[in-house]
Amino acid sequence: MKPNDFHSWIDSVRTLCRPDAVHVCDGSRAEFDRIAAEMVRAGKLTALRQRPRSFWCQSDPEDVARVEEDTYICSIHPDDAGPTNQWKDPEEMRTVMHRLFSGCMQGRTMYIIPYCMGPVRSEHSQLGVEITDSPYVVLNMHLMTRMGPEVLARCEQEPFVRGLHSVGVPLQPGQPDPAWPCNPKHRHIVHFPETREIWSFGSGYGGNALLGKKCHALRIASAVARDEGWLAEHMLILGITNPAGKKKYIAAAFPSACGKTNLAMLQPSVPGWKIECVGDDIAWMHVGADGQLWAINPEAGYFGVAPGTSMQTNPNAMKTLTHDAIFTNTALTQDGDIWWDGLPPQPLKIASCHPNSRFTVSAKQCPIYDSAAENPQGVPISAILFGGRRNTTIPLVMESFSWAHGVFYGASLSSETTAAAKGELGKLRHDPFAMLPFCGYHMGDYFDHWLWMGQKLVKPPRIYAVNWFRKSADGKYLWPGFGENIRVLEWVFEPTNAQKTAVGNVPQHFDSALTNIDHAEWMHEIEELERYFALFGNKFPKELSAELQALKARLMVY
Ligand code: GTP
Ligand code: SPV
Ligand code: MN
């Protein structure tokens, strides 16, 4: 892009959206305080009495989660979006979006948010600019991304991802603004991977509106990563130090609301082990000069699931949330604090707490924030985990035999659906690499790209599958999870005492109810995978078909 495109783009958006005012954000504390104060005065935010510089708000009940049915990938060729994405012709979609955005910011301020995904000085980072009419989005982007004069200056000179967002509720003079403006009837979350553009209309919540997160750092970035030879993944990154002082880094992909934030901030139940948090949701991973896989966290904050978070389950998150945090859709106590399921009972002023209620907070406040998280080159990854919510079949942990077998684990991932996305709960669905809602191109090409990455790596990370959610016949979790997950990481750190099974290497020291491989369940799993993989037609890599056949053959023998 040419220098000065920043200003001409802003001018064209202003002409299209017709806001009352324009504000270019500087990312400063004063700016945050001023916008927060304005929102409090307007009754849109509640300042919390128990937590300094912290706020509570409630979204419209129609706007509480990601909306996959309103999400589009508009590549020129439908085959570049693939069978797991909704494709629309880019030119047709542009016409629709121009109509929706025409005059949509009347009566509102248009905020320009220059941001950087990743450490500002990293060659792996990317610039983005989000234009939005939501002050709530501005506050969240302050916490979730790197902003400031240096980023703004670079956006005036260098290419950036263009994100345009509107809640989709223009105001006529004198018309009152709803507490949480949104326009669910005309909701569109639209991506143009080829031109690195995002157009999001009608929602103000989470990944629909904080465009640096899922839209930029996953959907657009995954397409860029395919072109440039790296990986943009829905993964946490953690540092793990054993009692002897040896440190490694692990990345893990679990679908939404399946335990990434909890694992990334784990407080070990086994003495002597230490966990540090690099990131809780997204990893950008490159092949380093040394042939290892290196990861940065493009984000600067957490947008985490509130319910279930407590001093017992995730004390490090609780300590992160003592100040400078935003809480959305949690309950509110009578003495002006927030509450959700899992916290000690309190007299409540607003009792409703949505299962996808979330906190937004800067990563720097996490007591176990890894100092290497700010390293421009990232951290070297020695193991990758894939996990989902599975009542049955998948053992607590298993280790793949090779990179290709590990890629097969990723492609085979399925999980019971959660409240993070709109739709039915607890239904088993395929979610390859936990990227089903986030892959910005054809999933078959994505599998192939993972196999290709393995060829580039001199020392590829070992790949594991994990499952914290196996249940007994009477429906109880068999594994305590949370801090106890260190026992699984301990084995990943040093996979000794393994037994080879048809599906992978499995540790022998756990209760067999957690790790046994049920032949009938796996035959069913294979049938289901054969059916699912057929969806990708001739784009399904033959290496993965070979893995499936090999698994079938092994199951006959073991
Ligand atoms: P997204 O932010 O949506 O990507 O979610 P996430 O993958 O970061 O999930 P998170 O760590 O926020 O956990 C989601 C829910 O799962 C919370 O209610 C947790 O309490 C619960 N959970 C997390 N880890 C475990 C575990 O080890 N065992 C059990 N039983 N529940 C867990
Ligand atoms: C997820 O759903 O995986 C999230 C929340 O991390 S959102 O940003 O809304 O996508
Ligand atoms: Mn997520």
List keywords for this structure.
single chain; 28% helix; Phosphoenolpyruvate Carboxykinase, domain 3; seven-stranded mixed β-sheet; 15 helices; 558 residues; 3 domains; binds guanosine-5'-triphosphate; alpha+beta; Phosphoenolpyruvate Carboxykinase, domain 1; globular; six-stranded mixed β-sheet; Phosphoenolpyruvate Carboxykinase, domain 2; binds manganese (II) ion; binds sulfopyruvate
Explain what this protein looks like in three dimensions.
The chain has 558 residues and is α+β, with helices and mostly antiparallel strands. The chain folds into three domains: 5-229, Phosphoenolpyruvate Carboxykinase, domain 1 (3-Layer(aba) Sandwich); 232-300 and 370-557, Phosphoenolpyruvate Carboxykinase, domain 3 (Alpha-Beta Complex); 302-364, Phosphoenolpyruvate Carboxykinase, domain 2 (Beta Complex), CATH 2.170.8. A hairpin with a 4-residue loop joins strand 8 (188-192) and strand 9. The longest helix has 17 residues, at 212-228. The mean pLDDT is 97. The structure holds guanosine-5'-triphosphate, sulfopyruvate and manganese (II) ion. Guanosine-5'-triphosphate is lined by residues 254, 256-262, 280-281, 304-305, 307-308, 313, 420, 468, 477, 481-482, 485. Manganese (II) ion (MN) binds next to loops.
